[in-house]
Structures are given as structure tokens and as C-alpha cells.
Specification:
Elements (H helix, E strand, L loop, with lengths): L13 H11 L6 E5 L6 H10 L6 E6 L11 H14 L1 H5 L13 H7 L8 H16 L4 E6 L6 H13 L5 E7 L7 H9 L4 E5 L5 H12 L5 H11 L3 H9 L8 H6 L7 H13 L3 E2 H7 L4 H13 L3 E3 L3 E4 L2 H10 L2 H16 L7 H13 L3 H13 L6 H14 L5 H4 L4 H15 L2 H15 L8 H5 L15 H31 L7 H8 L7 H17 L2 H18 L2 H17 L1 H5 L12 H19 L2 H18 L2 H17 L3 H18 L3 H6 L3 H4 L4 H18 L2 H15 L6 H17 L3 H13 L4 H6 L1 H11 L7 H5 L9 H15 L2 H14 L2 H17 L3 H18 L2 H13 L26 H10 L5 H8 L3 H15 L4 H10 L11
Parallel strand pairs: 1-4, 1-5, 2-3, 3-4
Antiparallel strand pairs: 6-8, 7-8
Helix pairs in contact: 1-2, 9-10, 9-11, 10-11, 13-15, 13-16, 13-17, 14-17, 17-18, 18-19, 19-20, 20-22, 22-23, 22-25, 23-25, 25-26, 25-27, 26-27, 27-28, 27-29, 28-29, 29-31, 29-32, 31-32, 32-33, 32-34, 33-34, 34-37, 37-38, 37-39, 38-39, 39-40, 39-42, 42-44, 44-45, 45-46, 46-47, 46-48, 47-48, 49-51, ...
């Protein structure tokens, strides 16, 4: 009998093993992905790595099953958590979790100690619990989480992997994943995204060299192989270690193709062992012992001996619940070699064995029953099993989505499906849409919504609920004259429910379409047409809130306010706090965007506000109160985000920063930082830039975070930082940033306001470079694109800078200049731009004095200095040299403090021309914190991180304090250790104390 012992020597992977071991202690590395083709040695590398870990390390292993992307949701993480419970015990794990955790839905044994999952448990809460569990474990020992075969990961597992890679930043926790690049499929996009994360490393395993193949053969054969054999095996295997091992066993009988090569691992097996292999291949991975025993025709003792032989021969590996093939390629080759009849019989046996267990089956086993029944051709049994499995899975769980989709696939293939299951095809589609919305499965949800509407409203002409209830003939076809009042009322209620069902599906599809960036289309309009106004319920309120949101982003503030008011009335009547909060927030957004909205007090808060902004903020205060009552962290974050946008537009920058911090704190606490932080970062940077705190604005998002942001957020930040570069006199950098912002914005319909901002920046850059023709062309292009002036009226906050630029640009379009008289100025910032526009046309010192006062009211130093210089020019022309001198002096001092070189130079030129004494002596203040050498090469943000590290803060603590991601905190710590030449946080704290680095910049003032 030929033996397949496998080599105990790992060949050609020393550098990769070292990289993995080093990553465990590297605070800047949170994730390592190991990429390589099948058989290249990814699992062998992981095994060698874990053997070299400290004995204290906790290794958690999960593997994605071969079912692929349609497999069991969270399958590898389920295996990890089950293994953890077996290692530590359910009670010990429960102490690390909150009461009623979402994880109780995964592990019923936890519910004994924690209570069942809370009804509101959702995907983000589940992710947060897993993150917290891993971080708690990492506080007492190194934790290594290994996920194998990620190319087979289901959608939900990929989402959870993304979340952990972005947030699992503690130095004692490392995530390791293996995958096949050639079979990555949906994983490719995730890998590309993760590669931009500085805390993620990718190890690519390459084929062995000829020399390395020779070393592997020597270990396999326990002798030095002949050079001719090395060459032959190297050429046939391509340097793949698995194929080298297979070829090395039969050097004189090289198989013809890959399948024969893989089947060669069965050579020399006993008859009993050979009888076990096909059933094992049919069961897949993992292979549960009890199920295998039920479908193999061997007595228990003989089965055990056969399994021992397969394990000793390394054809099977043992797991905590059974077995798995040493490699998926071997299992696939064996399965593919079976005759169709053999496969059908074995699948039927597996289905029968599972069915015999009755109601004792858990959701995973019921899904297995469905898979085997389907492969055996028993589609009716498969349909029943999929439904049974789906009903045991929580309503918002991604696994439910997969199971429901399988039901849908079988529905039309099984006669009388509605008689078999207690549901309808339409109801299944509706459930798919609901779960898709909850899980973020946008495309799958849209497809299901399309199919549902094809059944609900095939011709698109279903009548609204009110006209339906008022008709003389009900939808059932019975004339109302032949029925009594009670029967007609029942028919009316049924009709109304049917129409609301149609409207709800239009609304759900609108939401899903909106998340793609394409907008809701006409679906929301259709939903509102169908829903009754009289006696309106929650469905109409939801549709109105969605419509308010869509309208505000299209620039229709009045329409948004109208929808929000109507939604608020319904929500207050129903006592729906979450809806009340969202309605108030949209009223705040709309009121801040259009004066006529705030001027209509029909549904404003009881106390009348002094202006549009105060009116809007009153609504935001109501939104905060309602959000607190709803207890929904998502609403808290959303309200803070919208409020910060209003405050920035209104020029209340300090208040905006406070709102941003509140939003970021709520996002941290609810584990929604990665999805909610980008727009908050944008508003934070914009507020700081407006206040002249340019270094702080640049530090809001550093290079470790910027590439991880969505394109629209990156574009907005790029525009913000480009304006700072232009103000500092770096025209080249500003022009390059404008080009990059344009690339990021693309042609998205939802980016109109940012495109206006880009046009203003480009015009200002051309003007600063002396290209008046180019500047005028940019302004003309604004009117020529899209809806022209209508776009400007829809976004007045972003239009006013363009109008003000037109007043100083030779050849500017007359139509744009005319907007200065008609464009609404809703906020104090708009009013300041209007004052500049008026002053540029009038050219009088009095008008410039008004512009200076307007900018002082919103505390924008750069704009104050620019207006002072223009005013000084007018004072000098009017012969008021004293006033001109004072204005130039103040402008020069502000410019020097900001580092605004063009303004400094303009002040000096004006002082020379007008023979003023001011404008020539101001110097920029020296930066706080001393020189870079005195800071040992640390940036201001790194000094801030170091001071917090010295206080004992963890990476998550740093993240919460500085409003950055935990991943970025880990990168900062790693850089600090490198720059200071120390090995640990403790040593860094001691170094900082010894070298006087713990005093804040404020202490040096």
C-alpha cells in the first residue's frame, strides 16, 4: 500500500511565516490576507504560523464552505464562535457580551446565560458585539482570527470582514484570511478596498522554484531525488506544492490530467476506506460524523477504522464536529467522477437521514436537507426544507435572504407551490425586499422588488386607495348594490390594504434605487399617488419622509418642507418618534435652504425664530428630542449630520464643530463610524477652514483615512483643501486638486452643489493665475451645463460664490451678474457674498465696509482680510488715507497669521502704491510646538496621539477621543514607535515624559 504521509517540512515560505509572526506584535497591522491559487500552500502556511505563536495566544479558526457565495450566511464566523464557546464555555463568553445580545440568535447556548436576542437586534449591533468580544479577549492574550477560503465567503461574511478590518485595531488582535485570486469573484472589490488600508497586508504566495520543488521531494521521499525527477515534477506541477506531493508519490506513473492527479490520492486505500470517500464528497464540508455514518453501508467499527485510515493518509482532516477533505480540489475531483445515479442516490440518502430527525434540526441542518433534496431531484421536499429553514432565521439575517431566494428559484418548478407552503410567491418576494433593505443587499432587493411589482401592478394603472374604496364596484367584481354596508366596508378595507401593499413596494424600491446614487426615479411619486391622504397611516408618513429627503438633495427645498410637514402631522398622531425626528430634521434642512420655507410658520415650533437658521435649529432641537425618545443611534447620527450641514452653510462654524463631534461620538458608540463619519469629516474640515484654522482642517483626515472615504466625500474634502492651498498662494496644488475633484465627482446627478463649488474654485484659480479669459469661460460653462440658472437657484449657498466671482471677472456672463438681484440669500454667509457682489459693482468704501461687517459676523478671517484690502483700495481712491492705512494694516496682520501669502503681497503692493505705512512689517507667527527636531520628527497629530497613549488609552479610546477610526489610531501609534525608536506604548510614554513631549501646545502659549 502506498502511503501519503505529507511533508513535515514547509518549503519556500520562510519569509511569509516571519511576516505573519511579526504582524502579531505590530500595532500598525490589523489584517493579513494570504493570496494564492489552489494547492499553493495557504493552509499549510497558516498551520506553520500558528505553531510558532506564543502558547498564550488564542487562535480562532473559521472556514468558508464550498457552497460558495450563496452559502450559509456568516458561515466562517459561526464556526469561530462555536469553537470559542467550546474552548471557554458558554458562561465565560456570555460575560463578555451585553444582555440579550444579537449573537444569541447565532448560538442558542448563549441565550441560557444572556437571555434571547433583543427584538431590535440588527446587523450593525451584531457586528459591534463581535468586535467587542474580540477586543475583550485581546485584552488578556494575543488573539488571532483565521478565516480560510474567503473566495467562497457569502455576502454577509464579506460585510463583517470589512467591518472588522476597519475597526479591529488593537495590537493584540490579528485577522488572517486566505483566498484564491482567480476565484475571488465578489471578493475582488473587497480586496481592492482593503489594500488601500495601511493596516492591511497582502502576502501573495508564488509557485515553488525548481530548487524548492527538489527540497519538497526530498522531504516527501526521505531521500535525495534524482535531478531528472525534480525537473519532471517541477515541469508537471508548475511549482504547486499540492501537485508536487501527488506527483512525488508515483514518479514513474505520471497521470495524464489534473483530475487523475488528484484522484491519485486514493491510490492504495482499503475497500472500506474507498467506500467512505464518495459519501464524504457528497456531504461536502464540513462532514458531520453522524450524517456520514447514516449514509455509509458500514458497521460502526469498520467505519471508524476506515476513517482512521483516511485521516492517517491525510486525505481527510479531523475537525471539532467531524471531518473535511485536506483540499477542496480533491473533494471536487472525487465528486465530479461519480456517475449521475451515484450522486442522486447519495444525496437522497443524506436527505432521508436528515429528514428522519424531524423538528430537532437546526436552521443549518434544514438548509443542508434542502440542498441534498434538491440535488436528489426531490424539489418539493427541497422547497419545504428551505421554507422551514427560513422561518427559523431572524427576520433581518442575511441567511434568511439566501434561503428565501432559493425558495423563489424553486417556486415555478414545483407544481402547486402555494398549496405546499403557507405563503405566496408575492409574500416571498416582499420578504426578500425587506431583508435586502436591512442587509444592504441593494441589487438583490431591486430585482425582487421588480418581480413583486410585476405581480402587484403589472400594467402600472392600479387605482389609488381612495378612488378604489369609493367605486361602485369592488375589486372582487361584486357590485356594491348587491351587498350590504358591512360587506362593502370589508371590501373597501381589503382594497385599501392591497393598494397600500403596492405603494409600500414602490417606496421600498425607491429607497433601494436611491442607495445606488441613481435616485429614486418616479417610484416615490407613484407610492404617494396610491396612498390615501385622509386617515393616512405610517406607510404614507414613511413615503413622505423619503420624498422630503430626495427633494432636498435635488434642490427643491419648498417641496421637501411640504412633504416633511405632512409626514410630521402623521407621525405625531401615531406617536412614531423615529419618524418625528426625521420629519423635523428635514424641515430644518429645508428651512435653512429656502427663506420661504421658514417664513411659513404653519408647522414650525411654537416659539417663532428670529431668522431662517434659528427656525431650522429649532426643528433640529425637536429632532434630537424625538431621536432620544426613539433610542435609535442611526437617527441620532443622521440628525447631527444634517444639523452640521445647516450650521456650516449658516456660518455658525463653532456650533457646527460641536454637532460634528456629537455625531462622531454617536457613530463610535453605535459602531457606525465607517458609514457615518465621511460626511461629518467633510463638515468638520469645512468649518475649520472657514475659521482660518487651516492646519487643523488638513489634520481632520490624514493620508491613512483619505483613500478609504467614498468618492463624493473625497471630492468634497479635496475641494476644501484646495481652497486652502489657493489662499496660501499654491496655485499649482489648487489646480491639481480641482482636476482630481472633477474626476471623483464624475457625472453623478447628486453632486450638483459640489460641481458648483468646483466651478467656483476653478474660476478663482484661473483668476489668481491671471487668466481672466479662462475664468470667464468657467462662469459661462456653469450656465451652459444642465439646467443652467435653475441649478443655481436650487443651490443658492453654492451659487453665491460664483455670482461674487462674476462681479470681478472681465467678460463674465451678464445672466450670471443679473442673478445678484434675484438669487435668494438665505443664510448670513449668503448675505456676506451678496455684500461683496454689491461692493464690487459699486466700488465704494461704504459698500466694502458693509462687506467687512458681514464677514466679521460669521468670523471668516480670510474673507475679512480680502474685503478690508478691497475697501482700503476704495478709501485710498476717495482720499481717506487714514482709513485705508488702518484697513491695510489689519488685513496684513490677518494674512500673516493665516499664512495667506497672496493677501500679504497684495497688502504690501497697495501700501507702496498708496504710500501707506501699513502692510509691510507683519510677519507670520511661529508655529506652536517648536521645531520638528524638538518634536523628534512627530507631527502635531502624532504628538496629540502620544499624549493620549501616555494616559493609557487603547486604540479604540484614541479613536473616540480624536474622532478617527481605530485603524488610523493604530497606524499613528506604529509610526510614533518607529520615530521614537521604542518597542512599546509604555516605552513611548516614558520617552515622552523624559523629553518633555507631554505638554500640549496650549501650555506653550
Amino acid at each position: 500500500m502506498v502511503s501519503f504521509p505529507g511533508s513535515s517540512v514547509l518549503v519556500g515560505r520562510a519569509a511569509e511565516v516571519s511576516a505573519l509572526v511579526e504582524a502579531v506584535g505590530d500595532p500598525g497591522t490589523q489584517t493579513v490576507l494570504i493570496a494564492g491559487e489552489a494547492g499553493i500552500g495557504k493552509s499549510r502556511l497558516v498551520g506553520e504560523f500558528t505553531e510558532r505563536l506564543d502558547s498564550r495566544a488564542l487562535v480562532l479558526l473559521g472556514r468558508c464552505p464550498e457552497l460558495g457565495t450563496g452559502g450559509v450566511a456568516y458561515a466562517p464566523f459561526l464556526a469561530v464562535l462555536r469553537g470559542l464557546v467550546r474552548q471557554l464555555g458558554g458562561e465565560a463568553v456570555a460575560t463578555l457580551l451585553p444582555p440579550h445580545p444579537a449573537l444569541a440568535n447565532w448560538l442558542p447556548q448563549l441565550a441560557v446565560h444572556t437571555g434571547g436576542a433583543a427584538p431590535e437586534a440588527d446587523r450593525i449591533r451584531l457586528f459591534g458585539e463581535i468586535l467587542t468580544l474580540l477586543e475583550q479577549l485581546a485584552m488578556t492574550r494575543p488573539v488571532v482570527l483565521i478565516l480560510e477560503d474567503l473566495h467562497w465567503a457569502d455576502d454577509a461574511s464579506r460585510e463583517l470582514l470589512t467591518f472588522l478590518a476597519a475597526n479591529l485595531a488593537d495590537a493584540d488582535a490579528l485577522l488572517v484570511g486566505t483566498y484564491r485570486p482567480g476565484e475571488a469573484g465578489p471578493l475582488r472589490g473587497l480586496v481592492a478596498e482593503l489594500r488601500r488600508n495601511p493596516g492591511v497586508r497582502v502576502l501573495e504566495l508564488h509557485p515553488l522554484t525548481r530548487h524548492e520543488v527538489g527540497r519538497q521531494l526530498a522531504a516527501l521521499l526521505a531521500r535525495e531525488p534524482e535531478p531528472r525527477l525534480i525537473t519532471k515534477v517541477f515541469e508537471r506541477s508548475g511549482g504547486n506544492p499540492l501537485f508536487v506531493e501527488a506527483l512525488g508519490q508515483c514518479p514513474d506513473q505520471l497521470p495524464a490530467d489534473l483530475t487523475d492527479l488528484l484522484l491519485g490520492f486514493q491510490s492504495g486505500l482499503s475497500a472500506d476506506a474507498l467506500a467512505v470517500v464518495p459519501p464524504a464528497a457528497v456531504l461536502g464540508s464540513p462532514i458531520h460524523h453522524e450524517l456520514l455514518a447514516a449514509i455509509v453501508d458500514l458497521p460502526p467499527g469498520e467505519l471508524d477504522r476506515a476513517l482512521r485510515e483516511l485521516v492517517d493518509r491525510h486525505l481527510l482532516h479531523t475537525t471539532e464536529t467531524g471531518y473535511e477533505f485536506r483540499h477542496g480540489l480533491i473533494r471536487q475531483a472525487i465528486y465530479d467522477r461519480l456517475l449521475p445515479g451515484e450522486r442522486t442516490r447519495l444525496h437522497a440518502r443524506a436527505a432521508a437521514a436528515l429528514r428522519a430527525r424531524g423538528e430537532a434540526l437546526d436552521a443549518e441542518s434544514r438548509a443542508d436537507l434542502a440542498r441534498h433534496a434538491r440535488a436528489a431531484g426531490d424539489l418539493e421536499q427541497a422547497l419545504r426544507a428551505y421554507w422551514s429553514a427560513a422561518t427559523t432565521v431572524p427576520a433581518t439575517h442575511p441567511e434568511r435572504l439566501r434561503l428565501l431566494e432559493q425558495i423563489l428559484v424553486l417556486w415555478d418548478r414545483v407544481p402547486d407551490a402555494e398549496q405546499i407552503l403557507p405563503t405566496t410567491k408575492l409574500a416571498v418576494l416582499e420578504q426578500i425586499v425587506d431583508v435586502a433593505v436591512a442587509c444592504g443587499a441593494t441589487e438583490r432587493g431591486i430585482a425582487a422588488a421588480d418581480a413583486a411589482l410585476a405581480l402587484l401592478d403589472p400594467t402600472g394603472d392600479i387605482a389609488p386607495a381612495e378612488s378604489a374604496t369609493g367605486s361602485t364596484e369592488s375589486r372582487s367584481g361584486h357590485r356594491s348594490a348587491d351587498r350590504d354596508d358591512g360587506e362593502r366596508a370589508v371590501d373597501a378595507d381589503a382594497d385599501r390594504c392591497e393598494v397600500e401593499r403596492v405603494a409600500r413596494m414602490y417606496r421600498r424600491r425607491a429607497y433601494l434605487r436611491g442607495t445606488t446614487g441613481a435616485g429614486p426615479g418616479t417610484d416615490l411619486v407613484r407610492a404617494l399617488q396610491l396612498l390615501p391622504v385622509t386617515g393616512a397611516g405610517a406607510e404614507r408618513a414613511e413615503a413622505l419622509v423619503q420624498s422630503a429627503s430626495a427633494r432636498i438633495f435635488r434642490g427643491d427645498a419648498a417641496g421637501s418642507a411640504s412633504d416633511a410637514r405632512a409626514a410630521l402631522v402623521i407621525a405625531q398622531r401615531l406617536g412614531a418618534d423615529a419618524l418625528v425626528a426625521r420629519a423635523h430634521a428635514h424641515l430644518g434642512l429645508a428651512g435653512a435652504a429656502a427663506a420661504e420655507v421658514a417664513g411659513d410658520g404653519s408647522s414650525g415650533p411654537e416659539s417663532a425664530a428670529a431668522n431662517e437658521t434659528d427656525w431650522a435649529l429649532d426643528h433640529f432641537a425637536e429632532a434630537h428630542r424625538a431621536a432620544a425618545g426613539a433610542g435609535d443611534a442611526r437617527i441620532v447620527v443622521d440628525v447631527a449630520t444634517w444639523e452640521s450641514a445647516v450650521l456650516v452653510a449658516a456660518g455658525r462654524y463653532d456650533a457646527a464643530i460641536a454637532a460634528v463631534r456629537q455625531g462622531l461620538r454617536a457613530a463610535h458608540e453605535s459602531f457606525r463610524f465607517s458609514e457615518s463619519a465621511p460626511i461629518l469629516f467633510v463638515k468638520w474640515a469645512q468649518a475649520l477652514a472657514a475659521l482660518g484654522r487651516w492646519d487643523e482642517a488638513r489634520a481632520v483626515v490624514d493620508e491613512t483615512q483619505f483613500d478609504l472615504l467614498p468618492p463624493l466625500s473625497r471630492a468634497a474634502l479635496t475641494l476644501c483643501l484646495a481652497r486652502i492651498s489657493l489662499a496660501e498662494g499654491n496655485i499649482g496644488a489648487a489646480r491639481a486638486a480641482a482636476a482630481e475633484a472633477g474626476r471623483l465627482l464624475g457625472d453623478s446627478r447628486w453632486a450638483a452643489q459640489y460641481r458648483l463649488e468646483l466651478a467656483a474654485l476653478t474660476c478663482a484659480v484661473d483668476s489668481a493665475a491671471g487668466d481672466e479669459t479662462g475664468a470667464a469661460a468657467v462662469l459661462a460653462g456653469v450656465l451652459a451645463q444642465g439646467d443652467g440658472a435653475a441649478t443655481l437657484f436650487a443651490h443658492p449657498h453654492d451659487a453665491w460664490p460664483l455670482v461674487a466671482l462674476a462681479a470681478r471677472t472681465a467678460g463674465a456672463p451678464a445672466e450670471l451678474l443679473a442673478l445678484g438681484d434675484t438669487l435668494p440669500a438665505v443664510s448670513p454667509v449668503d448675505a456676506a457674498y451678496r455684500a461683496v457682489f454689491t461692493a464690487r459693482l459699486a466700488g465704494s468704501a461704504a459698500r466694502w465696509s458693509e462687506a467687512v461687517a458681514a464677514w466679521r459676523a460669521v468670523e471668516r478671517p480670510h474673507e475679512i482680510a480680502a474685503a478690508l484690502l478691497d475697501g482700503a483700495e476704495s478709501y485710498a481712491a476717495e482720499g481717506n488715507r487714514a482709513a485705508a492705512d488702518l484697513a491695510v494694516r489689519e488685513a496684513a496682520e490677518i494674512a500673516a497669521k493665516l499664512g495667506a501669502l497672496p493677501l500679504q503681497e497684495a497688502a504690501a503692493r497697495l501700501a507702496d502704491r498708496a504710500r501707506l505705512t501699513a502692510g509691510r512689517t507683519a510677519e507670520a507667527p511661529k508655529p506652536h510646538g517648536g521645531s520638528m527636531s524638538g518634536r523628534h520628527g512627530l507631527t502635531p497629530r502624532e504628538l496629540e496621539v502620544l499624549r493620549l497613549v501616555a494616559k493609557g488609552m487603547s486604540n479604540r479610546g484614541l479613536a473616540a477621543e480624536l474622532f478617527i477610526s481605530a485603524n488610523t489610531a493604530g497606524v499613528h501609534v506604529s509610526r510614533i514607535l518607529t520615530k521614537l525608536g521604542v518597542a512599546s506604548r509604555t516605552e513611548a510614554a516614558a520617552f515622552a515624559h523624559d523629553h518633555g513631549l507631554l505638554a500640549s501646545s496650549d501650555d506653550n502659549d
